[in-house]
Specification:
The protein is α/β, with parallel strands linked by helices and 223 residues long. It contains six helices and nine strands, in the order ααβαβαββαβββαββ. Bound molecules: S-adenosylmethionine.
């Protein structure tokens, strides 16, 4: 199937509707939590591509206030309804928004997190994304990125570690597997990398597959 931005968005929408969003169940939250910087009490965090909001719920549990954006309207509505039921609308809220055009004003957030969204954005748009993250972060704010690593041995039967460009398309969805050098190049001018870790996760749906995720914590440089 050909990859287009519209097909990709439909894929995410359909996955949330049918419960086939397998990424939600990758237990990355443990590792991500260990890398969180010390933030001021009541800090405001933006989660980009928030999906079902499980990472945002974790951040609320740690005492932060969280705004999440996702471009799939139906999941945003669903998560807002759930947090209303659970009674923490004063600590978290979700909005429809695109990672390349973040619907918040400059210098709003103490930290921005992205678990698995940048990897679905086309290379041509990476600069829009990084400029937006930089713009909405407060001075010296933190950014945690979790992305597919090029060192991954096997993903849907494909071998990312043997790939030259790290690009892969399946069911009309674009995936990019990042090398450490790419993360340096994409973020290096605007951010300083302060920690980078790798974790391997065996696939439950595709026996023999395992993905390696690259966790990178960065801090916004002053301009
Ligand atoms: C792999 S999922 C990860 C979801 C969630 N962060 C998690 O860890 O479970 C990628 C998410 O990014 C969203 N997404 C993809 N491209 C986006 C974009 N350009 N702007 C906003 N959200 C986007 C998708 O709808 C999906 O929820």
């Amino acid at each position: 199937m050909e990859h287009t931005p519209a097909v990709q968005k439909q894929y995410f929408q359909f996955a949330y509707q049918t419960g086939s969003d397998i990424w939600t169940h990758i237990p990355y939250r443990y590792q991500a939590e260990t890398m969180l910087p010390t933030l001021p009490e009541d800090a405001l965090v933006l989660d980009i591509g928030a999906g079902r909001g499980l990472w945002a719920a974790k951040l609320v549990g740690l005492g932060y206030r969280v705004l999440g954006i996702d471009y799939v309207e139906s999941i945003v509505e669903k998560v807002n309804a759930r947090i209303k039921e659970d009674g923490y609308t004063d600590r978290a809220r979700f909005m429809v928004g695109d990672a390349r055009d973040i619907p918040f004003v400059d210098s709003s957030f103490d930290m921005v997190t992205d678990i698995g969204t940048l990897q679905h954005i086309e290379e041509n748009d990476w600069h829009m994304y990084t400029d937006e993250v930089y713009r909405v972060l407060k001075p010296s704010g933190y950014y945690l990125n979790v992305s597919l690593s090029r060192t991954t041995p096997r993903f849907m039967g494909w071998i990312p570690k043997n790939s030259i460009d790290g690009n892969f398309t399946k069911f009309g969805v674009h995936y990019h597997f990042f090398s450490e050098e790419e993360i340096d190049t994409i973020f290096g001018e605007q951010f300083t990398i302060i920690d980078q870790q790798f974790e391997t996760y065996e696939s439950k749906s595709d026996p023999g597959d395992s993905v390696i995720l690259m966790f990178t914590l960065m801090q916004k440089n002053s301009n």
